[in-house]
Amino acid sequence: MRKPLLAVLALSLVVAGPGPAWGGEPAKALTPAAIDEYLREALDSTGLPGMSVVVTHGDRIVHTAGLGHDASGRPVTADTPMRVASVSKSFTAAAVMTLVDDGRVALDQPVATYLPEFRMADRRAGRITVRQLLNQTSGLSDRTVDIGATQRATTFAGYLAALRDGSLAGEPGSRWEYCNVNYDVAARLVEVVDGRDFADAVRDRVFARLGMGASAVGDRVVRPSDGFISVYGAWVPRTELPRFRGGGSGGVVTTASDMGRWLISQAGHGPSMVTPGSLAVLHEPSPGTDYAMGWGVEVEGSRKLLVHSGNLFTYTAVQAVDPATGFGFAVLTNSASLHDDTYDILLGLVALSDGRRPAAPGGGRQMTELVLALTALVALGLGIRGVLRSGRWARRRAGRTWWWTAFRLVGVLVPAVVLATYPQWASFLMNGRAVTWAQMTYFPAPLTITLAVAAAAGLATAVARLTRLRSAGPTG
Fold first, then answer.
1. Contacts of 417 (CB under 8 A, 6+ apart)
2. DSSP character for 284?
3. What is the rounded average pLDDT of the residues 115-127?
4. Which residue in the list 45, 52, 86, 390 is annotated as catalytic?
5. Contact predicate 259/210, CB 8 Å
């Protein structure tokens, strides 16, 4: 739920410690003024281009705010459309639960009961239940289906067709594994049972019931501006990766104002979208896991929060509900980087709501990218040095056995090997999540560039050494 790529792609180069308490002042009451003061501090310390925030309590919106700017230079407000990525999963789960309340879907029935088209090479797929999809315990995995084929699909019917040659990573219901496929299959289930396009079904079954008039699935109704990626500290506008943006796993576009209505409903107040019993099911983790249905349970100090984050390649979001106090929080940003500042900002808001002084967020992105920039400069310097001193290296190796010479060249070629297998090892470190080269040019760009510089420096050194070695005479 929190961005796993931070630890994976930053390679644990930097672990930013907590900042000093906000302003070093006594804790302040959770008022709009106190929230605005904290958010201004957060925007300054994180350097985010723009963000929108909402805080709710019980049946009311405490405060909404927008700060910064979008890619066109317009001010971000609480009504600025934002992509919320995997936060969408909680909306998809809610849409399914409205069908459960209508008696049209049963959580413990196989998905194939409602979707005969859902077939895979692995016959165990026929036993996957609706509940297992929403709990992410179905056995579906990025490692065992053709994710590339699913991302080329333009409809949910085409998406399911792309799964037919796939298999499961385990017995349905046996273990938890985060996989977007679960929620895109769930979206197709909503389409088929409801009888309408998924976007239309969610609009009527979820958004309209809660008064979320500025929210939609996909870009047809509400189109956000381009977001930003961070490249060595500089924010660069980028168009979001072209893929099936209407998906149930990450297709929602909404605003901070609308998220306030959503959070109120999730705390059990305001207009009812599902029955109280169904709302409890949506929030209850499956046995042995901390994941419910589009919500996870995270413990922060003495608080047990319902949380889900969302990370696209140019947008980031996080939502949380505190069932014990009735507070709700959402932080939406029009940017993505190796460090997820939205979660840090959310924790600051949680602290404010609890009468505590929030830690000053920020610094993680800047420090991580500074280290990567310095690493790239060092690699470039070593590459230049290696090329310039290749003649002396060759003279020292002349007459040595070929295998000894090859062994001494391996070290400078390691970065090139790492770069060549970059998506593969990133996928491995992310527990099999599918990773593509195109994705590596977005928020992981500083790491990608640093690896490319190191690889080029190593290759240049190796070529120069081999060229000089040939001129120096044969090895033994």
1. none
2. S
3. 96
4. 86
5. no
Query: Per-residue pLDDT averaged across 417-431, rounded?
Result: 80
The answer to whether the CB of 49 falls within 8 A of the CB of 335 is: yes
Give the Cα separation of 346 and 35 in Å (integer): 11
Q: What tokens appear for 184 in the block?
A: 């895109």
pLDDT the model gives residue 30: 86
> Locate tokens 């739920």: which residue?
1
Say if residue 1's pLDDT is above 70: no
Tokens of 336: 């993505």
pLDDT of residue 195: 96
CB atoms within 10 A of CB 155: 14
Length of the chain: 476
- The single-letter code of the amino acid at 180 is N
HSE at residue 138, side-chain half, CA atoms within 13 A, is 36
Task: Between 328 and 440, name the one with better pLDDT.
Answer: 328
What are the pLDDT digits (tens) for 312-366?
A: 899 999 999 999 999 999 999 999 999 999 999 999 999 999 888 888 788 889 9
Of residues 110 and 10, more confidence is placed in 110
What is the C-alpha separation between 178 and 135, in angstroms, rounded? 9
Instruction: Name every residue whose Cβ is closer than 8 Å to that of residue 171 and which is 6 or more positions away in sequence.
Output: 124, 139
Give the model's pLDDT for residue 275: 97
Which tokens in the block code for residue 107?
């959580």
d(C-alpha 259, C-alpha 332), whole Å: 10
The upper half-sphere exposure of residue 426, i.e. CA atoms within 13 Å in the direction of its Cβ, equals 21
Of 76-80, 266-270, 343-347, 388-392, least confident by mean pLDDT is 388-392
Q: Rounded to an integer, what distance in angstroms lies between the CA atom of residue 126 and that of residue 107?
A: 14
Look at strands 327-333 and 296-300 and give their pairing.
Answer: unpaired
Token pair 């805080």: residue: 55
User: Residue 431 corresponds to which amino acid?
Assistant: N
Beta-strand relationship, 60-68 and 50-57: antiparallel
Q: Kindly report the average pLDDT of the chain as a whole number.
A: 88
Extents of the domains making up the chain: 5-13+21-95+192-361, 365-472
Instruction: Say if residues 473 and 396 touch (Cβ distance below 8 Å).
Output: no
Phi-psi region of 362 (alpha: psi -120 to 50; beta: other; left: phi over 0): left
* Superfamily for the 5-13+21-95+192-361 domain: DD-peptidase/beta-lactamase superfamily (3.40.710.10)
C-alpha to C-alpha distance for 99 and 107, rounded to whole angstroms:
10
337 is catalytic: no
